[in-house]
Amino acid sequence: QIIDLVLLVIDAVKGWQAQTTECLVLAELCSPHLLVALNKIDQLDETNRAQALQQATAKVQKRLAQTRFRNAPVVGVAACVGGEKVAAESGDQDVRKQQQQQHESLNMNVLIETLQAKLPVPDRTPTGVFYFAIDHCFPIRGRGTVLTGTCLSGSLNVNDVIEFPELSQDRKVKSIQMFKRSVEHIAQGDRAGVCVS
User: Is the whole-model pTM more than 0.70?
Assistant: First the structure.
């Protein structure tokens, strides 16, 4: 209900793996939009990198042909040129940082531009009944109980009273946090921690 786009990352050298199929199944269940990032293109042979990338892209598109994502864009990238070896080879922190800055990424700007172009504007509505999918809850002595989860519909404000139908109980919202920051309000699509009395 709240996943707007799935970014499927595939190793360009290894290609499609069993876990890639699992991720594709989850993507089909969760989102109408998909973008594929073929990562580690820096590890393809430089002399015929363009051809190898074209072949890897064709293989991915063939796998996607029978799914709703048959027209999904595929972008070749290298998130960390040289891989983790570059960072690990040097014990000197300054040298390591300099190497990482020199070898940071390849085509990441293309991936970001494609994401910005393909990501639909989320269709969120703060009206309607408040539904909150709870992932976890835990008590905090002297404060109340914190519920972490996702707002699936409606909205919630601090001091609102929420109902727990299965417990036949109502509780007042004492505070709300999103990513370790206090907020006064959440709406559909927001992940949050809600502290109740």
Answer: no
Which runs of E-coded beta strand occur in the chain? 6-11, 34-39, 74-76, 131-140, 144-153, 155-157, 161-164, 169-178, 181-183, 185-187, 191-196
Contact 52, 46 (CB under 8 A): no
C-beta separation of 81 from 104 below 8 A:
yes
CA distances from 145 to 160, 172, 186, 196 (A): 15, 11, 18, 5
How do residues 15-29 score in pLDDT, each as one tens digit?
A: 999 999 999 999 999
Mean pLDDT for 64-83 is 89
Q: What is the rounded distance in angstroms from the CA atom of residue 8 to the CA atom of residue 30?
A: 13
Q: What percent of the residues of the chain are helix, what percent strand, and what percent coil, each to the nearest 5?
A: 35, 35, 35
